[in-house]
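dumping these here so i dont lose them again. two proteins, back to back, each one seq then structure tokens. dont judge the mess
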Amino acid sequence: MQLDNNWGNFSRLCGIPAVEDGNYVRCYYMKPLSLDERCQLATSTTSIRKLKQGILSPFQNLKKADLVKELKARNIETTDKDRKQLQEDLTQLLHGISRPPALMIPEPHLPTENINIPSYEILCTEPLHDLTNVIQNIIAELPYHIQDKEAQKEFQNFSQTTIVA
């Protein structure tokens, strides 16, 4: 089963690949990573340097040489693999993690206890995308609920210039 591109290859927080969403036994036994484990996985190699430089998605658009360096640092074999295979290996290894949790980005090396978020919950959804869609729907629908034709025209113009399909 292939999911929408917004979800990528990992549609669940637990780290199960999207192609195995129907494997309920694996889903049941897969323990979601803690915040500390997620952060350690995302910052255990050269990515920490990129984060300190302000690059918030250190694994995005890596060149083949960077992929090899990242995988070798994690003791993963890279010989005779093309860029696509290397990217797949890294994605599988990271379980879909693309960066440390947002609250840990300023100090990714500190444990959650030190920054007072040891029991912080990571949502299994993408609330920003959900909110964006709700707001876009409101902006698109609003002109049809306004009686004043002049105001309705202004809101339609606003709606058409604000929402980019």
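---- next one ----
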Amino acid sequence: FDGWRTGAADDSYYHPFVPPVDGDPRALVSAWRDLPDDKAFAEAMGPQPRICALELAPRQRGMPDYAGALNYAYHLDAAKLANLLSEHAVRRLDVKHVRDHVTSVDLAVNGDVAAVHTRDSGAIAGDLFLDCTGHAALLIGEQFGVPFIDRSDVLFNDRALAVQVPVAPGSPIGSQTTATAHSAGWIWDIALPGRRGVGCVYSSKFASDEEAAATLATYLRATTPGGEAEDLSFRRLTFRSGHRERFWERNCLAVGLSAGFLEPLEASAIVLIELSLEALLENFPATRGSMEAHARRFNERFRYRWDRIVEFLKLHYVPSQRDEPYWRAHRDTASIPPRLAELLEVWRDQPPSLADLPMADEVFPAASYQYVLYGMGFPPPAAGAIQTGAVDAVLGQMRQAEQRGRSLAASLPTNRFYLDALRAERSSDKRMAE
């Protein structure tokens, strides 16, 4: 995260994919606060920021699939992934895949969806329907009228400009997604082997489309060597932050954009799709008679998750010291959810902990709140009644993390080297198979 705290040249922090060193959160913060070298919280808690700063890969060649020296995530071509999943489902799971547009809905006598009519494939009947009709929400919204809860009073962004930026062969590939704050939003920057995916997220209440385009163009000129940023066209996207009041209504479960959408910070929309499907599989109704109970449990669970995600995204803005109107509005108490406002008061005396986020499967655990809160410069609590031994133990783990960081920095390949080697290996395997 660059520029979120003050906008100064050295304003930067990491939200790593690894938890902090083990220990009571109070001991962690106490040990970090007393470090002599004014080290950033994330850098004191683990080696990942060092690896990212050096543009290194999280794994070495020869490691088993999905293993890694550090936790990592994927940047995938969404269309290719969808095709892969479709092929797997059809060939291995005996799924019938119909690609079509829903034109109308038939209801049963009891009010359930009995069938959906499609433009080219006729009627498709079923017992349980997943509404994957995107923002249109043809089943959950249009048919059943489940209200949409607008969260734009908390999260202001409602537009984005996206662009693909070519990169020169052999150029470095960053190891992290970078989110750079600007006067009315932020810019994502995702480094890939052949291009960068860049986008300017903004609020139309605080910046016009033309101003956002100028902001994005300025960013591209500053971060792109040579003339690679010239003559690029921007794709404009509009969205509304919010979600359905209920996600499972009668025999219809909304998944993905039909359930809701929040600005693309921290990839929350993607994880909610996975969590929704996992929850359905774990609690699949065997009969129509049990469906209402499953729906109530699902709705309660996912309303909790959406509310927590809204609060976590808002946390990225509230501690900012930036002085533009957009950022001042984010600090306005009227825009801060009451539960988050209360927690911020509590966190002046103690760090975020499991007591604040008690669910076993929180989307963002207490560690994520610690990384963002202290990365944004929120003042850590003053020294409290923490046993010296607990702090000493944490300091020992911090030293071990520092040593591991040095070892990984000396042994891991660069992201560019690893990904180029991986692609060459896969191309060779494909040629041999042919």
